Amino acid sequence: MTMPARLPVITTYRWVPPFARGLVRELRARWAFEEVGIAYRVELIDHPYAKSEAHRRFQPFGQIPTYSDGAVEIFESGAIALHIARQGSGLLPEDPAAQARAVQWLIAALNSIEPFVMDLAVVDVFEAGEDWSRARRPTVERKLRERLQDLSAALGGREFLDDAFSVGDLMMVSVLRGVDRTDILADYPNLADYRARCEARPAFRKALADHLAPYVDADAPSAVA
Amino acid sequence: MTMPARLPVITTYRWVPPFARGLVRELRARWAFEEVGIAYRVELIDHPYAKSEAHRRFQPFGQIPTYSDGAVEIFESGAIALHIARQGSGLLPEDPAAQARAVQWLIAALNSIEPFVMDLAVVDVFEAGEDWSRARRPTVERKLRERLQDLSAALGGREFLDDAFSVGDLMMVSVLRGVDRTDILADYPNLADYRARCEARPAFRKALADHLAPYVDADAPSAVA
């Protein structure tokens, strides 16, 4: 652990359309900061700037979030959440075997669940107008449900994916939120309960409120003379 | 770091079809073991066993690889490669900022590149017979190419994604191998060179040979009387 040179700064979009609110990936970093109790600053950027050379020096894919504390500069919400987890306590167990499992669940969220969640979002949102989306949807939903069924079986009756809440749960719940425009999660009651349990944490509620605040302000009608 | 209770064991499939050879994800773990010089053992399992309750206790999605050393038991090739990297030297820089960047590239490979590589594999291989696959292919290839273009720009003229070869390069090259049935990578010469450079490492060559060996044996004609 190195001491950051200054307050960590993360970037996110100044404005996103309503369907994306609560899903933008800087929320994952905010949640991690709140869980470990590290103060941070947010830099709101516009979409054109995200695609600029200046921003791509920190995020080659022209996306958000990025993390910078003057010593460490990284992108990828998974890497950022893991880095924040390592700076404080509460998100990574000290026992090395349990710590390896927390990292495993974080990566499972990003590589074994999120691609299937995103695939359904492509069908329902990003390519909703394409003929092929209607034809593919049953297959895409079936594959996602297979993963959710497996995850539900792995969770069983436990409170969290492992013995205690970790950065793995933080990432898994962040990913599960991506099916919100559907009723799918309700078919896996233990996953729905697990999600609600994690979202009831004060750290999540604070992070979500702070995440939503700029969009509320941005949408407020301007003062009219 | 805890001392493993015994030689680490990873699981992989006893047999896979020819198109999957060289792409099965236990190769990532083999490569990591070879880079850090840790001896390991491989347990070959059959596909039905992978889907059994017994195996799902270690891998909820009924897949491979799993890693077990008697102290740590994990799944997800990304988590396994990172865990192996932490057990030895050569895959994770000691400088904390550079270490965070290596983890960032590992996660970028798994979350920002692999979903697009897999999407093209779905179109070309797993759902090749579906009408929608032909219609979708140009869109899917375009999105993959956007990511490869960004990655190519990020790599620039450098030898590796950061100053020295790391577990981030190991994972990125493992993911890039997934477009091998196409000529796409040749359109990004610095990525093609980067991939060749990493694959020329003795650790990769040993890992690949060991990965392929069981399949050669499995396909050998039985002795005929």
CATH topology term of the largest domain in chain A: Glutathione S-transferase Yfyf (Class Pi), Chain A, domain 2
Unreliable residue stretches of chain A: none
Mean model confidence by pLDDT of chain A: 94
Question: β content of chain A, as a range?
Answer: 5-15%
As a percent range, the share of helical residues of chain A equals: 55-70%
CATH class of the largest domain in chain A: Mainly Alpha
CATH architecture of the largest domain in chain A: Up-down Bundle
Strands side by side in the biggest sheet of chain A: 2-1-3-4
Report the major sheet of chain A. 4 strands, mixed
The chain pair forming the largest interface, with residue counts per chain, is: A-B, 44 and 44 residues
Structural class label of chain A: alpha+beta
CA radius of gyration of chain A = 18 Å
What letter string, H or E per element, gives the SSE order of chain A? EHEHHEEHHHHHH
Features:
homodimer; 225 residues; alpha+beta; Glutaredoxin; Glutathione S-transferase Yfyf (Class Pi), Chain A, domain 2; 2 domains; 4-stranded mixed sheet; 4 strands; globular
